[in-house]
Amino acid sequence: MENFKYITKSEELGKAAKEWSGEKELAIDLECENNLHHYGLKIALVQISSRSHHWIVDTLVLKDLKPLIRTLEDKNIVKVFHDVGFDFRILKRELDCIPKNIFDTQIAALFCGREEIGLGNLYEKELGLHQEKKFQTADWLKRPLSKEMLIYATKDTAHLLQLKDKLVQELKENKRLEWIEEELKELEKKDYSYPETTYLDISGAKLLSGTELSVFHALFDERERIAHKVDRPVFFIFNNKLLLDFAKSPPIVEEWKRMPRVHPQVHYEAEKLFKVTEQAKKLSETYPKPERKFFSQKQKEELQKWEEIRKKAAEKVGIKSHLILDKEEMIKIVLDGDLNGLSGWKKELLR
Predict the structure, then answer these.
(1) Is 45 helix (H, G, I), strand (E, B) or coil?
(2) Does residue 2 carry a pLDDT above 80?
(3) Which of 31, 88, 198, 349 is in Cβ range 3.0-4.6 Å of 140 for a Cys bridge?
(4) Residue 257 half-sphere exposure, CB side, CA atoms within 13 Å?
């Protein structure tokens, strides 16, 4: 898979965009940094494949990505992804872009009744291709990238259109292509805001006392600041277990200076960390109580009824029950008293 164009210049991107505009469908994948080697989230590469050509767009080097964004938002080109969830969130966050006219091979595989829906599993079982994992945890922000890494990146999209063809044929045979087409249209309407982790999301935070939670909050923010400063993931600074320990028993300056299992920058900032925790100890925070939905006995019985209905429907057609009705959809049916909020294929199947 050495036949690809590595795009690092604006004129190259413009030329590629003209080629893409003549295609009916394109396979798309991203290589990202997600707090594994560096601080934060960043798109490193966008891989694109047609039936005969392959491109790798270096989003770190290129300053103007408008031609790429226009292609992703072009409603005349089908964009084939495998699992749009994370990709769309990072595209929305980093490029303010949500691709239009999409096909998701993971969703297609689910509607074909597949149990193992990872791209590597599908490539192997459907196409007889082995997907390497050598660079699965590679640092995609480092430059220059080796040719071997670029070849690896290309393989994710090189056969995606072929996989789509096979799954679409099976969907047609099982008369489910219209089902997935409805689901894919709904995907474009979803909220793809990226959920930033807060101190309240960390396991164990809700068990802390008011003062401990205040210290925990302050040290969480300091960890973020230091991680950003040294460009390392937050767990490189100190892990969540230590964060909880520090909240319960805040170290003094000398302890911060010789603290084991922390980033060296923590030692350098010992006095600041001590001052921050001393200030936080004067305050008290309350962990917010989660909103709870309360149902009447009749509504609980209705929910149980719909749980049984979706289970039977799933067994009948051989797909996962959550594809037919998820929890929020069942609640909406019970509260509204009708199926109006559902897509057409779901109404037909359930009725």
Answers:
(1) strand
(2) no
(3) 31
(4) 4
Q: How far apart are CA 257 and CA 290, in angstroms?
A: 38
Question: What residue has token string 């149902």?
Answer: 295
- Domains of the chain, by residue range, sit at 5-187, 199-280, 297-350
pLDDT tens string 184-231: 999 988 999 999 999 999 999 999 999 999 999 999 999 999 999 999
Domain pair 5-187 / 199-280, same fold: no
Alpha helices in 103-201 (DSSP H): 105-111, 119-127, 147-158, 160-173, 177-187
The span from the CA of 310 to the CA of 350, in Å, is 8
User: What pLDDT score was predicted for residue 132?
Assistant: 82
CA 126 from centre of chain = 24
Residue type for 90, please? I
Residue 97 has pLDDT above 80, yes or no: yes
> Cβ distance 47 to 56 under 8 Å?
yes
Helices and strands (DSSP H and E) totals, the chain: 18, 6
What tokens does 163 get? 């996989």
The yes-or-no verdict on residue 1 having pLDDT over 70 is: no
Q: What are the strands, taking DSSP E only, across the chain? A: 5-7, 25-34, 41-49, 54-58, 78-81, 102-104
Q: How far apart are CA 174 and CA 316, in angstroms?
A: 13
What is the Cα Rg of the chain in Å? 25
Query: Cα–Cα distance between 309 and 349 in angstroms, integer?
Result: 10
Task: Residues 199-280: name the CATH superfamily.
Answer: HRDC domain (1.10.150.80)
CA distance 181 to 345: 10
Structure tokens at 310: 């979706």
The CATH code of the domain at 5-187 is 3.30.420.10
Nearest by Cα to 4 from 165, 161, 113, 154: 154
CB 62 within 8 A of CB 69: no
Residue 30 CB partners (closer than 8 Å, separation 6+) = 43, 44, 45, 46, 47, 87, 90, 91
